């Protein structure tokens, strides 16, 4: 075991969701087999392993929410549920021979850059290792966020987050409080409503909701896609193209979203007849400012007689009594938090100590920033999949992940071309220029001009989450590594010096 704990690998991948498994597949396709996948849980799947709440499903069409190199002609629905997506990821691990690289229950507890050896020292719950390159694929939707509510510890019933569902508690016949109105909440509410005695929704801000064009994919369609792959590719291409054409309305011309807003209002009016409730569920910001949600069952569930909508956030808990910010009180036997994740303050950043002895969290104290969404200055040979400003508001994150895998592959090729023991460190000026350009583009977007406060924004009010462009634009920007944006690090000559101060070799622009 001791020998295994001191193992050195060329690449260590953190996480086994879409990003981690995708990175592992790409490594094998590049001929790299000296790598490990460090997974804190006991199975692959990432957020699709952790989120098992009632009604959990994807809001991106299945044929677009899958890897281009691993199509699945047997998706059962237009929008597949959590069990099918998790099963797909398990098949990825099997099909591409990734099991031998997986180390389960190996949560990364900390890692530090060794400037003398030019590698990362990684401490995990399963032992220690060193790696030339680390790829962080922990994802932004991995660590649940529960707000600090005064008195929550006095609540006598069950408290759960949507991403940590309590399957041992039977909620049938109970009084349940749902906190939040995001993507998970609009799936949980209609799933619970028929069986609970009373459901109270604490809503700070109503979401915009559009119809969900979901249906079963027929056996004939599945046969067609399996027998004639071109039809499957055409379906994926159509889904992608439609979303690419929508991007300009989000990023340059928010006023063009008026028609979409009209359709959302019509959807609400059709399902909710009570004018008072309809007014409470009507957003006061431009559609698209927060993520647009899709559901055919959310509004009808809220209109049922055993559901109450409280138009204020949860402020305090007094035993089994929940008190909203407007003073409204509700009794509950269980509380479900649909309050999102640590997106702009990723916990992994506190565990990564770079070349200057500071953590990534410390470097990002004024906001996340990474060159092309992948690399941060002072953290050599450390790449993030789904890093800062790589999120999307209307399309599939798998497209962004695959673009970043292209960048990862070329990064490793550049290390080989440069030869020997080598590392690349993003130039601060390159990171600043990239981030400045993104934030300039962000000023025109609906996320900045739409009049809402969303989880896309960090504590300073900056959007460090979303990509202000098309997926094809991001793919072009990450197709190759520009060495002019990096400093090349080589091992120091002579006796060991300061382990936190790497030598730097300039690369001509």
Description:
The chain has 509 residues and is an alpha/beta fold. The protein has two domains: 2-143 and 342-489, FAD/NAD(P)-binding domain (3-Layer(bba) Sandwich); 152-207 and 290-337, FAD/NAD(P)-binding domain (3-Layer(bba) Sandwich). It has helices at residues 2-5, 18-29, 47-50, 82-95, 185-192, 219-227, 229-251, 258-271, 275-280, 298-302, 360-363, 397-418, 428-442, 446-449, 471-477; strands at 8-14, 35-38, 102-103, 108-114, 119-124, 127-136, 158-161, 175-179, 198-202, 209-210, 293-294, 307-310, 314-318, 321-324, 329-331, 334-337, 352-353, 382-384, 423-426, 486-489. The strands form five sheets. Strands 1, 2, 3, 4, 5, 6, 17 and 18 form an eight-stranded mixed β-sheet that branches. The protein has a five-stranded parallel β-sheet with strand order 7-16-8-9-12, with helices on one face. Strand 8, helix 5 (185-192) and strand 9 (198-202) form a beta-alpha-beta unit. Helix 2 packs parallel to helix 12 (397-418). It is globular, with a radius of gyration of 24 Å. The two termini are 46 Å apart.
Tell me how many strands there are. Answer: 20
CATH fold group of the largest domain: FAD/NAD(P)-binding domain
Envelope shape: globular
* Low-pLDDT ranges: 1-5, 499-509
How many helices does DSSP assign?
A: 15
The CATH class of the largest domain is identified as Alpha Beta
Tell me the name of the CATH homologous superfamily of the largest domain: FAD/NAD(P)-binding domain
Report the portion of residues in β strands. Answer: 15-25%
**N-to-C span:** 46 Å
Examine the secondary-structure arrangement and name the CATH architecture of the largest domain: 3-Layer(bba) Sandwich
Chain-averaged pLDDT: 95
Radius of gyration of CA atoms, rounded to a whole number:
24 Å
Q: How would you characterize the largest beta sheet?
A: 8 strands, mixed
Give the structural class.
alpha/beta
Task: Please indicate the count of domains.
Answer: 2
- Helix percentage range: 25-40%
């Amino acid at each position: 075991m001791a020998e295994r704990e001191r193992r050195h690998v060329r690449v260590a991948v953190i996480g086994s969701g879409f990003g981690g498994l995708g990175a592992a597949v790409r490594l094998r396709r590049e001929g790299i087999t000296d790598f490990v996948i460090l997974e804190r849980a006991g199975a692959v799947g990432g957020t699709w392993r952790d989120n098992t709440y009632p009604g959990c499903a994807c809001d991106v069409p299945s044929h677009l929410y899958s890897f281009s190199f691993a199509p699945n002609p047997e998706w059962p629905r237009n929008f597949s549920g959590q069990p099918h997506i998790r099963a797909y990821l398990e098949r990825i691990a099997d099909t591409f021979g990734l099991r031998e690289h997986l180390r389960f229950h190996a949560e990364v507890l900390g890692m530090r850059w060794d400037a003398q050896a030019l590698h990362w020292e990684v401490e995990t719950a399963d032992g220690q290792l060193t790696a030339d390159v680390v790829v962080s694929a922990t994802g932004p939707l991995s660590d649940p966020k529960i707000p600090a509510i005064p008195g929550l510890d006095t609540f006598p019933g069950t408290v759960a987050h949507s991403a940590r569902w309590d399957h041992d508690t039977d909620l049938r016949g109970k009084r349940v409080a749902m906190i939040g109105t995001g993507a998970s909440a609009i799936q949980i509410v209609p799933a619970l409503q028929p069986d609970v005695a009373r459901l109270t929704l604490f809503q700070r801000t109503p979401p915009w909701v559009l119809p969900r064009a979901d249906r079963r994919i027929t056996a004939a369609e599945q046969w067609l896609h399996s027998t004639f792959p071109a039809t499957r590719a055409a379906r994926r291409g159509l889904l992608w193209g439609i979303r690419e054409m929508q991007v300009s309305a989000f990023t340059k011309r928010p006023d063009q979203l008026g028609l979409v807003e009209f359709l959302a209002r019509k959807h609400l009016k059709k399902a909710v007849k009570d004018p008072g409730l309809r007014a409470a569920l009507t957003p006061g910001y431009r559609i698209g400012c927060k993520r647009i949600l899709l559901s055919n069952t959310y509004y009808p569930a809220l209109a049922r007689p055993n559901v109450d909508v409280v138009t204020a956030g949860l402020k305090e808990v007094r035993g089994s009594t929940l008190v909203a910010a407007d003073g409204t009180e509700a009794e509950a036997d269980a509380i479900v938090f649909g309050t999102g994740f640590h997106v702009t303050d990723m916990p992994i950043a506190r565990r990564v100590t770079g070349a200057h002895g500071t953590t990534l969290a410390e470097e990002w104290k004024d906001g996340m920033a990474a060159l092309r969404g992948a690399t941060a200055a002072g953290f050599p040979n450390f790449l993030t999949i789904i890093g800062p400003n790589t999120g999307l508001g209307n399309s599939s994150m798998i497209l962004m992940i695959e673009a970043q895998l292209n960048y990862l592959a070329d990064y490793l090729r550049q290390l080989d071309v440069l030869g020997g023991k080598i590392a690349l460190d993003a130039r601060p000026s390159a990171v600043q220029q990239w981030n400045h350009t993104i934030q300039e583009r962000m000023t025109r977007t609906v996320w900045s001009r739409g009049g809402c406060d969303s989880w896309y924004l960090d504590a300073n009010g900056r959007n460090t989450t979303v990509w202000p462009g098309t997926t094809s634009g991001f793919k072009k920007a990450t197709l190759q590594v520009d060495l002019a944006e990096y400093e090349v690090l080589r091992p120091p000559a002579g006796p060991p010096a300061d382990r936190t101060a790497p030598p730097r070799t300039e690369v001509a622009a």
